[in-house]
Specification:
alpha/beta; Rossmann fold; N-(1-d-carboxylethyl)-l-norvaline Dehydrogenase, domain 2; 2 domains; 8-stranded mixed sheet; 16 helices; 47% helix; 14% strand
Length: 361
């Protein structure tokens, strides 16, 4: 591909991931059009994007990179965005709980939509996109870097890892090359299910528990009772993967197969590995479940991660009791059905809730 500007990209979302990926593509010379809320779109058009990527030693940069507003566009509707087309690809970079609204906006314009690379968490987004656009216009993807959001369009890369792209679509190789050339460390994966479920397995440890009990992942893994729950969550996910014939694969910068092995090792052997991988992997920040809950957001991606384990467990007859309690408890906290302080710094209360739920089963 000799002329990168000839590959315009439509980016759904200018949050942390959207700004990182879209901003990197814009810096590489590609035309990027973001779709965001009106207030965010106005702000980004006024002052541009700011990307602090100094942690990525491959880039060999020292200061914050600024993407001038002239180098991208940001609009508040798909109808406006399509005026900048045609596009080579679209990228879904928003939270999974925003997928349904995005697809409703896409439905009237489906015939004009390019293929979609889905970088969202979970395993349910690609089928939902395929139901609107067709399976031939959906490409599964993953992003494993840790990115902090300072403000709209202002991000800091906390852990530089990479992007996974599923093979099988005519555009897969081209997109992998495109993203890699934008210094996003892109890798092609032969099996989409292996890649996406491995990302689920990576996202599970410490995430829901940390949010519920208001403790850091390091504290969670240092607590014997909570650590036992975390092992069972991972074991439930692995059982659900196994019954589907899905295998853990290493993702860019993440030793997923080691995490899977740790779930099967004796607890005292596995704990140091899990503390190091899970604690260090988040770049020193709290999991997104915790951030969303304590920011007062009324939605959580737990439905798309632990919830996926529960749903597919039901489908294939695999018990997932601990994952179910995590989903039900965190959603009750998110919706205000349980006071946020109910389990705060009270791990024994969560452990007891899991035990009591199994007694009722």
């Amino acid at each position: 591909m000799s002329d990168p500007i000839s590959f315009p990209v439509l980016m759904f979302g200018a949050g942390a991931i959207g700004t990182y990926v879209g901003g990197s593509l814009a810096l590489a010379g590609h035309r990027v059009v973001f779709i965001e809320q009106p207030s965010v779109a106005e702000e980004l058009v006024a002052r541009g994007l700011r990307l602090d990527l100094t942690v990525d030693k491959r880039r060999r940069i020292r200061g914050v990179l600024v993407v001038n507003p002239a180098s991208f566009a940001c609009v508040s509707s798909l109808e406006q965005a399509l005026e900048y087309g045609p596009f080579g690809a679209a990228i879904f970079a928003m939270k999974s709980f925003d997928t349904a609204a995005a697809l409703e906006a896409i439905r009237p314009w489906a015939v004009r939509m390019p293929p979609v690379l889905c970088l969202q968490n979970g395993v349910d987004n690609e089928p939902a996109i395929a139901a609107i656009l067709g399976a031939d216009r959906v490409i599964a993807g993953t992003l494993t870097g840790s990115i902090g959001r300072r403000a709209a369009g202002d991000i800091v890369l906390e852990k530089a890892r990479g992007i996974g792209v599923a093979a099988g679509n005519p555009l897969s190789v081209q997109l992998t090359t495109l993203l890699d050339a934008a210094e996003l460390n892109a890798h092609l994966y032969p099996q989409a299910a292996d890649m996406k479920w491995s990302k689920v397995l990576m996202n599970l440890p410490g995430s829901a528990t940390s949010a519920i009990v208001d403790m850091t992942p390091g504290e969670v893994f240092s607590h014997p009772g909570l650590y036992a729950l975390e092992r069972r969550i991972s074991q439930e996910a692995l059982a659900v993967m196994k019954v589907q014939g899905v295998h853990p694969v290493d993702l860019p910068g993440i030793p997923v197969r080691a995490l899977a092995l740790a779930a099967r090792l004796p607890a005292f052997v596995a704990r140091p590995l899990l503390k190091r991988v899970v604690g260090g992997g988040r770049g020193g920040k709290m999991p997104s479940f915790h951030i969303d809950l304590h920011a007062g957001r009324k939605k959580s991606e737990v439905e798309y991660l632990h919830g996926a384990v529960v749903r597919y467990g039901e489908k294939f007859g695999v018990p997932t009791p601990v994952s179910r309690v995590m989903v039900e408890t965190l959603l009750a906290l998110v919706r205000g059905e349980i006071p946020i302080e109910e389990f705060s710094r009270r791990p024994e209360k969560l452990i007891r809730r899991v035990a009591e739920s199994q007694g009722r089963a």
